[in-house]
């Protein structure tokens, strides 16, 4: 038996709808819609165009529903962002995590609770954009006073499709408001002055919410009455489901961000993990995603955008080719430095980074691209060594999934700098993880994560990169 399902996968730069046929030994995907996602800056900050995303996504679902009976639909997106509601209506336009109000949010949280104490509660890497920091700014601005509910973005879409308000567990784990044992941290919320009744019931990936309601089906022309399911709605949680790894495998979920780490049976919120800036995010089936956010291809895509705005005609493939031909040593910077979070002129920020430290910056576009990729690869190597040391889990191979699996130079540099074989693919791991967990809930796919990963291995072409030197 196979099931036909649709994944709505929202990335920070683009969204897609993927229709899939999944069975015990079948995994066929077909992208039926792809749309741009560009945050928009208005007076009070940077926001996501959530209605445009919802519209494009649901039109994609309608397309997917036309030539096959669609059993279910599920949404994943980037983490941490949310909408505030009152009596079921969205209040205002959700902010983007790249809005610079988050730095102030971090200070507001710091004033209430010290970082080691917070880490012991939620186990998250200190990052300015975590939900908890954003909420403290909302609170200061009086926005929480009007709200009676908070929904993470995939849950907001689920609510619009079904009328049910829930919080899916993996994405809830990125808020900073969930304890390591999986319960909402109402005590912390009390300390921060955030009303716990804003939160909803937590559901596990695989939970059936309800069919897409009649109003929505009629508005978008969706055929049949597909169920909306919860899956690993944090995109990285879905991506990790589809990493074709075996024991000894680590992963880099490589797109706008690079999420570098391993799967562990339980959280590791030790002083060492805190020192090395590791996060413990909730995975599907109660696993822990013990990983570090090592910035990502964001730096490269912003650099290319900056150059193109200044008249550069070369696109990413040509720039990568030029960078691959650089056969001299280039310097490396720390890609996790917060100066690289906001949108802007990355070549200039990289130059300033080196000059502030009295070092020679890279010169020319090829050298800058090479420097970005070498810096990311070095960041991955250090992170993987830390993950192995802190967890006691040996790492023998590294899997790269997401758009970055297409970047052959980055994959090769990662092999060189880690001294490990890199296995690249699948590119669409997030959508695959999304559809696999749906199909499993429908009884059409194998039960264990190990079997689901074996299905990915058996149905996708993967490319290996071996270390050329160094280690
Ligand atoms: P997200 O889901 O975060 O939006 P993706 O997983 O779609 O990100 O990855 C997008 C990134 O993949 C781009 O920023 C780009 O650097 C990289 N990428 C996509 N296609 C290619 C390609 N053909 N060659 C090299 N890199 C690519
Ligand atoms: C990747 C991602 C990542 C988070 C960031 C906000 O898309 O979800 O896991 O750290 O976006």
From TrEMBL:
The keyword Methyltransferase does not apply. Keywords: ATP-binding, Disulfide bond, Kinase, Nucleotide-binding, Rhamnose metabolism, Transferase. It comes from the Bacteria. Residues 96-241 form the Carbohydrate kinase FGGY N-terminal domain. GO terms for molecular function: ATP binding; glycerol kinase activity; rhamnulokinase activity. InterPro entries: ATPase_NBD, FGGY_C, FGGY_N, Rhamnulokinase. Transmembrane segments: none annotated. GO terms for biological process: glycerol metabolic process; rhamnose catabolic process. One of its GO terms (cellular component) is cytosol. Residues 250-441 form the Carbohydrate kinase FGGY C-terminal domain. Belongs to the FGGY kinase family. This is Rhamnulokinase. It comes from Agrococcus jenensis.
